[in-house]
Write a structure and sequence with these properties.
Number of strands: 23
Family: Belongs to the DExH box helicase family.
Enzyme class: hydrolase
Bound molecules: cytidine-5'-diphosphate, magnesium ion
GO cellular component, one term: nucleus
Keywords: ATP-binding, Helicase, Hydrolase, Nucleotide-binding, RNA-binding
Structural class: alpha/beta
EC number: 3.6.4.13
Largest sheet: 8 strands, mixed
Shape: globular
Length: 833
């Protein structure tokens, strides 16, 4: 029934029709790309606020009555025995002493900056004080407090905690809202949400109608969303004089924020933590008897291309660090330090010490130290998983039933969360493996020991080559202080720093703000959809403005994919993209998947790319894991198609209750597959809601068509594309910007001797030393020409040039004309309402 698809499909198969497309072909089928702003409102859970400007007397009365009900309910709870006990606990927190000072400062000023040690009660108490005092003043039903958190897990955990402190279930007066999920009721007056959610609300409600207080938490982290939100709020404040803004920060760079808001007053909550003793690598080596592995011993992994590159990088870094260590050892402090340790320090490898040293330290704690939970800071999810496997496989830690080993990550289920926060039974040692998420936003009370690898994965951005880099880098002194402080919550603690003291001394004071080290595409799209004017002007108002070159790159990219027009105005595609909570390129893929009725597989890919790779690649079983993955690719030169097959296979296995078996056999992460599954459901809901999918029955008519799927992948990932030239012994890959690139060893294409496609599109390239492309899919010339980029912008010549004049056959004038017209129609189609 849908002419265009048949036509495109036959083109992709190389049966080129000479008849140019006519307009009518586009008129059929489910092509609406219209949006309903209301739909978004409902999704984000911000129903229309009852408090409209034309509030009638009756409405006024209802509000008063509800406020009184709220006050009674609060009083009843506070007077109940349980409520009393809770109040006792809350009064013991350092924030309580400052309650009146805080409320007073907030009532007198539009902006207040609050700082205080982690755990003093900023997040759980301050929003609650505001809510309680409004309720006490019988204004409960008229207030609306929004408190943002940088991460999903903290928004959910904190809401749960605050509801419990108020003797309520979540969704009564306290709720939460995170991406595609939330618990919020009619009476919710305190909402914890991610920063992203508040930004999305600003998209449809630019003056935050009905909101009385905005609290931005953890601003010291300087995340991109937080910095962005601050610019928007700074603009909004003069237009909403009655709106209160409270900024909360753990470490003491409060002055920076205070001066950004014209010298807003600062309230500091003095905190109390027990002293924590620091052990640096030097002491740890003696304490545990651990010997650093000389770097050469890790040579047996040498087959792997990627590893070789890392090794080179490491060799360089090792020399730098070793000499830094040497320098410091020479310095007065270390003069009498034993020669033996000096030697081991000089072959100290910051990456390979990792697991074994951590294992030794954990052993030491489990066998020799007093009771208390252990919190281990690691760089990323992969590391956490591998270490967890390693620790479980070698029960070095003693009786396994006496050890509770937990991993803490953003998408964990609440049962798991509970285990992390709860004190285990006596005699059980709780060990929590976490990323820097556990640094400030969540508090695990019973931690007595912190083991810190000293690094965090940080995205950085090479603006010159327009390439994002993701590398573990040394944390800042501020982070280090935070991590250490986690050990002193209930009694004096110990912190094991897995690096020498001199490395610590060389840490930067604060981490570089994210805005200055990541690509800015999504952000620029948001600036446009919020109608905040010129992107460059807007970003120049940031706390610390990003490089003009980075801004320019992002704008160029958005023009290239057709999200912005030549004058930097949002196109229809751009507006649709800004409604979808995924990166622009993944949003584009979803929209194409919906338009071309092959939504199911495309949703799997997009969910996979936005969660994480479900294919596990354990270091010591890499060969097995790679061949397991290769089975899913069945030699079709696509990691994305392999992902679809793996996912579909898992769904089938799940139906027969064999999901885990299936994952185990195929080196897949069941947890990731589950996350992908739930994200897919949410995508479908969002697409329907935004009018991008009208008919659920027909949106999969073409889902079996592998060519079409490749083409849609290409539509999303372009200009993430490299040309393929098969040489006798190797394959040469080139992108426009970088010249030669290499395939990441996890890709199914890395095992191939020949790739029978002229192009590979990829989701991500990462600069480690060389530039590596991760997941990739082979695509044909016609796919690139029809689906890649935005023709109307560059015209045929420009497009050809972009493709490096590679498609010589294409120069035949009639062929060119046909392609050109199809492409133009296609671009128009995407850009119609
Ligand atoms: O935000 P800040 O780091 O200042 O502290 P908070 O998150 O408000 O936590 C204050 C106190 O509440 C912590 O010290 C914990 O004792 C307690 N808390 C808890 O018991 N359970 C939670 N889920 C969160 C906090
Ligand atoms: Mg907090």
């Amino acid at each position: 029934p849908f002419g265009l698809q048949r036509l495109v499909d036959s083109h992709l198969r190389g049966h080129l029709s000479r008849k140019p497309m006519n307009k009518e072909s586009f008129a059929h089928g489910s092509l609406s790309t219209s949006n309903s702003a209301n739909g978004l409102l409902t999704d984000e859970g911000f129903d229309e606020q009852e408090e409209s400007s034309t509030r009638s007397v009756i409405a006024e009365r209802i509000i008063t009555r509800r406020s009184l009900q709220m006050r009674n309910k609060q009083q009843d709870w506070q007077e109940s025995p349980e409520g009393q006990r809770m109040l006792e606990f809350r009064k013991s927190l350092p924030a309580y002493k400052e309650r009146d000072t805080l409320l007073d400062a907030i009532s007198r000023n539009q902006v207040v900056v609050v700082s205080g040690e982690t755990g003093c009660g900023k997040t759980t108490q301050l929003p609650q004080y505001i809510l309680e005092s409004e309720i006490e003043a019988a204004r409960g039903a008229a207030c609306s407090v929004i408190c943002t958190q940088p991460r999903r897990i903290s928004a959910m955990a904190v809401a749960e905690r605050v509801a419990a402190e108020r003797g309520e279930k979540i969704g009564e007066s306290v709720g939460y809202k995170v991406r595609l999920e939330g618990m919020k009721g009619r009476d919710t007056r305190l909402l914890f949400c991610t920063t992203g959610i508040l930004l999305r609300r600003l998209l449809v409600d630019r003056s935050l109608k009905g909101v009385t207080h905005v609290i931005v938490d953890e601003i010291h982290e300087r995340g991109m969303n937080e910095d962005f939100l601050l610019i928007v709020l700074k603009d909004l404040l003069p237009r909403r004089p009655e709106l209160k803004l409270i900024l909360m920060s753990a470490t003491l760079n409060a002055e920076l924020f205070s001066s950004y808001f014209g010298g807003a007053p600062t309230v500091h909550i003095p905190g109390f933590t027990y002293p924590v003793r620091s052990h640096f690598l030097e002491n740890i080596l003696e304490m545990t008897g651990y010997k650093l592995t000389p770097y050469n011993q890790i040579d047996n992994y040498g087959q792997d291309k990627m590893w070789k590159m890392q090794k080179q990088a490491f060799r360089k870094r090792k020399t730098q660090i070793a000499s830094a260590v040497e320098d410091a050892l020479m310095a007065a402090d270390f003069k009498d330090y034993s020669h033996r340790t000096r030697e081991s320090l000089s072959c100290w490898n910051p990456d390979s010490i990792g697991f074994n040293l951590i294992e030794h330290v954990l052993c030491h704690i489990c066998r020799k130290e007093r009771p208390g939970a252990v919190l281990v800071f690691m760089t990323g999810w992969d590391d956490i998983n591998s270490l967890k496997d390693q620790l479980q496989a070698h029960p070095l830690l003693g009786d396994p039933s006496r050890v509770l080993l937990l991993a803490c990550h953003g998408s964990m289920a609440s049962a798991e969360q509970k285990l992390i926060f709860d004190k285990p039974e006596d005699g059980v040692r709780k060990i929590v493996l976490a990323t820097n998420m556990a640094e400030t936003s969540i508090t695990i009370n019973d931690v007595v020991f912190v083991v810190d690898c000293g690094k965090a994965k940080e995205t950085s951005y090479d603006a010159l080559n327009n390439t994002p880099c993701l590398l573990p880098s040394w944390i800042s002194k501020a982070s280090d202080r935070q991590r250490k402080g986690r050990a002193g919550r209930v009694q004096p603690g110990e912190c094991y720093h897995l690096y020498p003291r001199c490395v610590h001394d060389a840490f930067a004071d604060y981490q570089m703000p994210e805005l200055l080290r990541t690509p800015l595409q999504s952000l620029c799209l948001q600036i446009k959809s919020l109608q905040l004017g010129s992107i460059s002007d807007f970003l120049s108002k940031a706390l610390q403005a990003p490089e003009p070159l980075s801004v320019q790159n992002a704008i160029e990219y958005l023009k290239m994919i057709g999200a912005l027009d030549e004058n930097e105005n949002l196109t229809v595609l751009g507006r649709n993209l800004s409604m979808l909570p995924v990166e622009p390129k993944l949003g584009k893929m979803l929209i194409f998947g919906a338009i071309f009725n092959c939504l199911d597989p495309i949703m799997t890919i997009v969910a996979g790319l936005s969660v994480r790779d479900p294919f596990l690649m354990p270091f010591d079983k890499k060969d097995l894991a790679e061949s397991a993955k290769a089975q899913f690719s069945s030699r079709d030169f696509s990691d994305h198609l392999a992902l679809i097959r793996a996912f579909d296979g898992w769904k089938d296995a799940e139906r027969e209750q064999a999901g885990y078996e299936y994952c185990w056999r195929n080196f897949l992460s069941a947890q990731t597959l589950k996350a992908i599954d739930s994200l897919r459901k949410q995508f479908l809901y969002l697409l329907k809601d935004n009018g991008l999918v009208e008919n659920v029955d027909s949106c999969n008519t073409w889902s079996h068509d592998e060519h079409l799927i490749r083409a849609v992948i290409c539509a999303g990932l372009f200009p993430g594309i490299c040309s393929v030239v098969n040489k006798e012994k190797s394959i040469s890959l080139k992108t426009m910007e970088d010249g030669g690139v290499l395939l990441h060893s996890n890709s199914v294409n890395a095992q191939e001797a020949r790739i029978p496609f002229p192009w590979l599109v990829f989701n991500e390239k990462v600069k480690v030393n060389a530039v590596f492309v991760r997941d990739s899919t082979g695509v044909s010339d016609s796919m690139v020409l029809l689906f890649g980029g935005n023709f109307s912008r560059a015209g045929l010549d420009g497009h050809m040039k972009m493709l490096g004049g590679y498609l010589e056959f294409f120069m035949k004038p009639e062929l060119a004309a046909t392609y050109l017209s199809i492409k133009r129609e296609l671009d128009e189609l995407i850009q119609t309402k």
